[in-house]
Design brief:
CATH topology of the largest domain in chain A: FAD/NAD(P)-binding domain
Order of helices and strands of chain B: EHEHHEEEEEHEHHEHEHEEEEEEEHHH
Strand content of chain A: 15-25%
Strand content of chain B: 15-25%
CATH superfamily of the largest domain in chain B: FAD/NAD(P)-binding domain
Oligomer: heterodimer
Number of helices of chain A: 16
Structural class of chain A: alpha+beta
Number of domains of chain A: 3
Shape of chain A: globular
CATH class of the largest domain in chain B: Alpha Beta
Helix content of chain A: 25-40%
Distance between the termini of chain B: 18 Å
Radius of gyration of chain B: 22 Å
Number of strands of chain A: 22
Number of domains of chain B: 2
Chain lengths: 518, 426
């Protein structure tokens, strides 16, 4: 059996794990990161894309708000290309108590959040589709953040500092010796091969799946509760500024413009299994009604995709006794298994949010350094990971600008997301994947308005022609893509999205007859 | 307000078929539509019934097994056969003649799809007929690097997996100086003898004895028969086309031939006319309201043939509260699951409860309500607007459109012979 050695084994390839790998690698640790699927395939790739200003938490959870204020500013500096500087608005809809606005402003002042009340007329000039009945409006430095770009950038940065990133490797067991975790057994999910990683320390950054990992170390009753939230991407930028309802955090109160879409979210429903998070019709209807409150006519706009993410909510009775008060706020907590369970060499990150991923990573690696008695200062507040060398933020239209430069020389494979053939072939080579769904996450292939109707046959043909797939794999990959896509569209098939889906049925079933591929 | 014997709504295969059939019989016909119809998307073959749900070899026999609410049950195998016969005659005497169709309702052929599935279909253009996969002659699939909507190596590989002998080759030719060509761009290129010469020159030495040659369906838009025959001659072997992703060149040929036939018969097509409603009295429509840009117009008609398509074409819509609507006349829509009922299943290839939704009609193609009562006397519904079929699964789309469009015309002619005669005498 293959063997790997590492100083630090990071479990989980989402934002937290990527942040931890980047942080630890920058501090000079020899890191292996394992992820059971593709990078950011879990919670990180399934969120609304909001880089919090902190405004959402200023009343309910000032500690979380302060963290957001600080981290928002740091991330804008170190990963500018992953962030679009949309700005944010908090608005008081007719269903919200206008008095909350005063508490909101006071909370912003107390937490150092630069918020400002503006005239409703100005807010409507800024965002003409907003509900004209809003009664108050406040500006905040919200932004949208591309989670996939962020995770790839961090993992590429980690790899540049020697980290090994193993995707499609599932942890199937944790090795223990003398009351300490000493490594893990992994299974390559593509080949079925197993390998052992011997590690000086294991950092569990598996989010909502943390309890499953800890179970392998014989640790039970850790209060990680998967909390399901659904989000719907609308096919347009209904707003160009992040819009929040100015009220205590609730469901369906955020609308985030990100790339070419706007995402409404979210709900919060306890879920027993983080891998079983179906979207229900009632949840979709609730989101659409919530959207109407912010943007009248929301129901007539085209919905593009719906998905559910699963938060790693953390409620652990044992923890309160062993960590400082900051960590027991709703933000995030480092679970010290030496103290909690008498198990050495293992720390778990629990709770948290994407906006504070850098701080979470710092806290986790700091805690590890403390246990190891090693003084290595965190550098992630200053270092920029790859792709973020320029200080400018991402702008909507960047891709179109790049595309126009090569318009005459290159085939456009995906017209919706402006993906050229060279870029597609490069992604296929560098990612070493045979999976159209992975390509989708890397390039956003098939995520635009046509939902893969045109580009997916092309991409299958190109994957085949660059020798990454044989005929059977091509058929399998295409079928899998269609099923994955269907999961994200069938609960929202009405209006133009149903029309598009039916056109795609004509292409895939009517013309190509894919259902009868051998 | 204009007035016509018949106003046909929609320029897909159903609408054009009804319009041409009526115009050629002397009716004054106006076709109004938002834009060109699904001909540009469909493969250009007339699929009668490919799966039911097993692959169908003899459509006429399989038709007998369809449920009574299926559109074919209203037309019958003989009605379908009559429509096919008529369609083939239109091409034999059409503007692209001698470009012709072959096949009938008795037997399906198996043509490769662009991804190499042996796809059953009934009536095919001459430029595709040699692709019948029931023949075991080996195939060389020719692709163009510039055409992203057709992948020859993938097609050949999938055919190989299905037990056929096939291989692929790709040509590095750039029609019209565009590296990113679609099927129409290549078809225009192949209409040009010089470009065709380059194709033959690059290809000739790559072919092996006994091979037939598959091309993407781009063998000419102006003169498909000429292009195809010239290639067969120059390459000295059978040549056939394989459907690409849309836009479909063979589908455009269908549109061109039928539209020209309509023009010759005195009919008119007005695009950018969206039907927004109708004036009605005593269970009849007397005029349609159409929106032309920002202007609204009225189009008087004795008869209306509604062929606006289904969900894909916008003939039927479903709103976010899951209420379905026929968009032109507000006809009742059948087959839509009620509130709280399942509309779609979680598996893409599953049978979806909403799949057969559409406008239900009686045996004379008049729209009916939930109780089966006729709602309008002088409106006939044809094509993908009809309830009861899942054409993309059954591979029955063009067959339903052709047969019901043709039947709608026959019904109007039968019911209005005197009216038409009077109209012509004016």
């Amino acid at each position: 059996m293959a063997q790997l050695q590492a100083e630090v084994l990071v479990i989980g390839g989402g934002a937290t794990g990527a942040g931890v790998a980047w942080d630890a690698a920058l501090r000079g640790f020899d890191v292996v990161l394992v992820e059971r699927g593709d990078l950011a395939e879990g919670t990180s790739g399934r969120f609304h894309g909001l880089l919090h200003s902190g405004g959402r938490y200023v009343v309910k959870d000032p500690v979380a708000a302060e963290e957001c204020v600080v981290e928002n500013a740091i991330l804008r500096r170190v990963i500018p290309d992953c962030i679009e500087d949309t700005g944010g608005l908090f608005v008081t809809t007719p269903d919200d108590d206008p008095a909350y606005g005063d508490r909101f402003l006071a909370g912003c002042r107390a937490t150092g959040l630069p918020a400002e009340e503006i005239d409703v007329a100005d807010a409507l000039r800024l965002e003409p589709r907003l509900n004209p009945q809003i009664r108050r409006a406040f500006t905040v430095p919200d932004a949208s953040i591309d989670a996939w770009k962020t995770v790839w950038s961090l993992t590429r940065g980690a790899a540049a500092h020697g980290a090994r990133i193993l995707t499609y490797h599932r942890v199937i067991d944790l090795h223990r010796s003398n009351g300490a975790v000493t490594g893990a057994r992994l299974r390559n999910e593509l080949t079925g091969e197993e390998l052992d990683v011997e590690a000086g320390f294991v950092l569990n950054a598996s989010g909502a799946w943390a309890a499953q990992i800890l179970h392998m170390a014989g640790i039970e009753d850790v209060g990680v509760v998967p909390g399901k939230g659904i989000m719907i991407a609308m096919n347009h930028r209904l707003v160009n500024t992040v819009v929040n309802r100015c009220t205590m955090p609730a469901d369906g109160d955020i609308l985030v413009p990100i790339r070419t879409v706007s995402v409404i979210g979210t709900t919060d429903i306890r879920s027993a299994d983080p891998d079983e998070i179906p979207v229900t019709q009632a949840e979709v209807d609730q989101m659409l009604d919530d959207g109407e409150r912010l943007v009248p006519g929301f129901r007539e706009a085209r919905a593009l995709r719906v998905w559910a993410g699963v938060r790693p909510l953390f409620q652990d009775a044992k923890i309160a006794a062993v960590t400082d008060t900051r960590d027991v706020s709703r933000t995030h907590a480092v679970v010290d298994h030496r103290v909690r369970d008498g198990v050495d060499g293992l720390l778990t990150m629990s709770g948290g949010k994407l906006t504070t991923l850098r701080l979470m990573a710092q806290d986790l690696v700091d805690a590890m350094c403390a246990q190891l008695g090693s003084e290595r200062p965190c550098r992630t507040a200053e270092e920029r990971p790859p792709g973020n060398e320029e200080p400018e933020h991402y702008r909507l239209g960047s891709r179109l600008g790049r595309r126009e430069e090569t318009l005459q020389d290159e085939q456009l494979i995906c017209e919706c997301e402006l993906i050229g053939r060279n870029r597609l072939e490069e992604a296929m080579r560098t990612r070493g994947t045979i999976n159209l769904d992975d390509i989708r996450r890397v390039l956003r292939l098939g995520m635009g308005p046509c939902q893969g109707g045109f580009c997916i046959y092309r991409a299958t043909g190109i994957l085949h022609s660059v020798d990454r797939l044989d005929g059977a794999q091509a058929a399998g990959s295409l079928r899998m893509f269609l099923q994955e896509r269907w999961k994200g569209v069938w609960p929202i098939l009405y209006g133009d999205q149903l029309r598009q889906a039916r056109l795609d049925d004509w292409i895939f079933q009517g013309l190509l007859d894919v259902e009868h591929l051998p | 307000m204009s007035h016509h014997d018949v106003v046909v709504v929609g320029t897909g295969l159903a609408g054009l078929t009804a319009a041409v059939r009526l115009a050629e019989s002397g009716a004054r016909v106006l076709v109004v539509a938002k834009g060109v119809g699904a001909t540009h998307l469909s493969g250009g073959t007339i699929d009668v019934l490919g799966y039911a749900p097993e692959r169908v070899e003899r459509p006429r026999e399989a038709l007998a097994g369809l449920p009574p609410e299926h559109p074919y049950a209203l037309v019958g195998a003989d009605g379908i056969a009559a429509a096919i016969g008529w369609f083939k005659e239109r091409f034999a005497a059409g503007s692209l003649a001698p470009y012709a169709y072959s096949g009938d309702v008795e037997e399906n052929v198996l043509l490769p799809s662009a991804i190499g599935v042996a796809r059953p279909t009934a009536v095919v253009p001459e430029t595709m007929a040699a692709g019948d996969l029931r023949r075991d002659e080996p195939i060389c699939v020719v692709g163009f690097r510039t055409l992203k909507d057709f992948h020859s190596a993938l097609l050949a590989d999938e055919l190989g997996r299905a037990g056929l002998t096939a291989r692929a080759t790709e040509l590095e030719l750039v029609p019209e100086g565009r590296r990113d060509a679609n099927s129409l761009g290549l078809a225009r290129g192949l209409d040009d003898p010089a470009f065709r010469g380059q194709v033959v020159a690059q290809l000739g030495s790559r072919l092996r004895a006994g091979e037939r040659v598959a091309f993407p369906a781009v063998l000419g838009i102006a003169d498909p028969h000429g292009v195809w025959a010239a290639l067969e001659h120059a390459l000295g072997r059978s040549v056939f086309e394989v459907t690409t992703l849309p836009p479909s060149v063979p589908g455009m040929r269908v549109f061109a031939v039928l539209r020209e036939a309509l023009r010759r018969a005195g009919g008119t097509v007005l695009l950018n006319n969206v039907v927004t409603g109708a004036e009605r009295s005593d269970g009849r429509v007397s005029a349609l309201r159409t929106r032309v840009g920002l202007r609204e117009e009225r189009r008087g008609a004795d008869w209306v043939v509604l062929a606006t398509g289904g969900f894909a074409a916008g003939g039927i819509e479903l709103d976010s509260r899951w209420t379905a609507r026929e968009t032109a006349l507000g006809l009742p829509v059948a087959g839509v699951p009620g509130t709280g009922e399942e509309r779609f299943r979680p598996g893409y290839f599953d049978d979806h409860p909403i799949g057969r939704a559409g406008v239900a009609v009686d045996r004379e193609l008049r729209p009916v309500d939930a109780a089966g009562e006729r709602v309008l006397e002088n409106v006939l519904v044809a094509g993908a607007t009809l309830a009861g079929a899942e054409p993309w699964r059954e591979k029955s789309g063009d067959g339903i459109s052709l047969a019901t469009g043709y039947r709608a015309a026959e019904l109007v002619l039968a019911a209005s012979r005197t009216v038409v005669a009077t109209g012509r005498a004016d």
